[in-house]
Design goal:
By secondary structure, the chain is mostly helical. The chain has 20 helices and no strands.
Length: 500
């Protein structure tokens, strides 16, 4: 049985998330601003963001599977923490110096891949190291550091300008110095925070984890044998064919029937076709001697998801669709709808963009505080109750952006979003970890990320089309769509089974 860890041990093992979120928050608060500065149109911004979720979809299950199989002098998960931190820090240095829009889009891809290399093993690390009764505490501690890191990182351009007098504007097509210096600081913090966790934490060896989880893993192996009897390669062919034909047929209809030039939609449905092809390939490999490989294992594990994980998938989809809509469109929504500024080179636009950084700092700061509050409330009620209430309040807060005209009042809305964010970062993982076998913790945490990145890909694929064709490029309506989506996620929490 896993021993309970002290407060400071949980603190140290979670501290690296301070750095991860530093990079993530700088990305969320400033990338749309960088894209607009380099000449991107409002309706093209979502497709430029597509790199981030696509990267997560590919990287996280691979890293999860690899870390499940890894054991080095640094441990099981820690080598990935460190590798991702080094790569992310380099990307943060380069991103704000992008001379062209395509360079910035490429750097977003590299930066997000690097962040994912660090982030996924951190989730599995909590499942590895903590007993069931401490997992909520572990994920809440991660939420605290996520919020704390994001508070500082989101507000850095504002701090640079208003506290240190660093230029907030620049010639057309040039990133302001306040943004550049913020990214440089983020690179240093990211690396140092992860090094702290790597140096101050230990890991159970694979043998120790197997002894402590012998019963649950044995049951899982029996389930696997039964599964392999019931699920044959033909299932992969059938399901893969459905996904492939549907994706290709819809893409062909949009291209030849509607002559649609919004390429984001094609990304979504071509992605469906590719997912189908991957299943067909897995089916072919199952019929050969090549069936014992990581690719087939990941596809097979996807089919064998625990019941709670399947139920949480729907909650995650609508939660993260809402979040991605917020991250993409808060800057143009606030600058255009509330400040009345549409030119990225003007002082008024950059003042509004800086205020968005402050707003994101507020919701992240409140999330850091609420991470401990929701942990306490969950003990008194349940994790489901906490998540339901938090998502409903977060959805209403996003809807309020449409009606508020005073930028200062948006601070109140950010408190509700912060509550939802704290819960999204902790409760689904705490519920999920109890249903996963120790030997598959990494790969299942990676697969669970599918239900974070698929809604982001969906948002990036269709929000540009919706905002352009239904709302005349009025970005504020994307936040309304996000609010409704988050409230729907709250309702779906009622159908989730939470048990170990």
């Amino acid at each position: 049985m896993k021993k309970k860890l002290s407060f400071w041990q949980i603190w140290n093992m979670s501290f690296g998330f301070l750095g991860i979120q530093f990079g993530f928050a700088l990305q969320n608060a400033n990338v749309s601003r960088i894209f607009e500065t380099l000449g991107a149109d409002i309706d093209k911004i979502p497709i430029l963001w597509i790199a981030a979720p696509v990267t997560g979809l590919i990287i996280q299950p691979i890293i999860g599977h690899m870390s499940d199989k890894t054991w080095t002098r640094l441990g099981r998960r820690r080598p990935y923490f460190l590798t991702g931190a080094i790569l992310s820090s380099l990307a943060l240095m380069v991103m704000p110096n992008s001379p062209y829009l395509w360079v910035a889009a490429g750097m977003l891809w590299i930066m997000d891949a690097s962040i994912n290399i660090s982030m996924e093993p951190f989730r599995a690390f909590v499942g590895d190291m903590l007993p069931s009764e401490q997992r909520t505490n572990g994920f809440a501690m991660q939420s605290f550091f996520i919020g704390t890191g994001a508070v500082i990182a989101s507000g850095l351009p504002y701090i640079m300008t208003n506290w240190f007098g660093i230029a907030n504007t620049a010639p057309e097509g040039t990133i302001p110095d306040s943004v550049k210096y913020s990214f440089y600081i983020g690179a240093v913090v990211f690396l140092l925070a992860v090094i702290w966790t790597v140096a101050s934490s230990k890991e159970y060896s694979p043998e120790e984890l197997e002894r402590m989880s012998e019963k649950s893993d044995t049951l899982n192996d029996e389930d696997s044998k039964q599964y392999n009897k019931e699920i044959k390669s033909k299932n992969y062919f059938i399901n893969g064919s459905v996904w492939t034909l549907t994706g290709l047929a819809v893409s062909a209809y949009f291209y030849f029937g509607l002559n649609l030039t919004d390429y984001g939609v094609y990304v979504l449905f071509v992605g469906c076709a590719i997912f189908g092809l991957l299943q067909i390939i897995a089916g072919l490999l199952l019929q050969t001697s090549l069936n014992q490989n990581g690719f087939v294992e990941v596809i097979t594990d996807l089919y064998k998801m625990p019941k709670s994980m399947k139920q949480l998938a729907f909650v995650q989809f609508f939660s993260w669709f809402a979040l991605f809509a917020m991250w993409i469109y808060t800057t143009p929504a606030v600058t255009h709808h509330i400040y009345g500024a549409t030119d990225p080179s003007t002082d008024l636009y950059n003042k509004g963009a800086d205020w968005v950084g402050v707003l994101m700092a507020v919701y992240n700061g409140f999330a850091a505080i609420m991470a401990f509050v929701i942990m306490w409330i969950a003990k008194l009620t349940s994790r489901k109750t906490v998540h339901l209430i938090s998502l409903m309040i977060g959805g209403l807060s996003l809807l309020s952006f449409f009606y508020i005209k005073n930028p200062n009042l948006l601070l109140v809305s950010e408190l509700g979003i912060g509550l939802a964010w704290a819960s999204i970062l902790a409760m689904p993982y705490a519920i999920l970890a109890g249903s996963l076998p120790a030997k598959k913790m990494g790969v299942y945490m990676g697969i669970f990320n599918f239900f974070i990145v698929i809604p982001q890909i969906t948002a990036a694929a269709i929000l540009g089309f919706i905002v352009k064709n239904m709302f005349a490029n009025n970005a504020i309506y994307a936040l309304i769509v996000g609010g409704v989506s988050m409230m729907l996620a709250g309702i779906l929490v009622l159908f989730v089974e939470d048990k170990n």
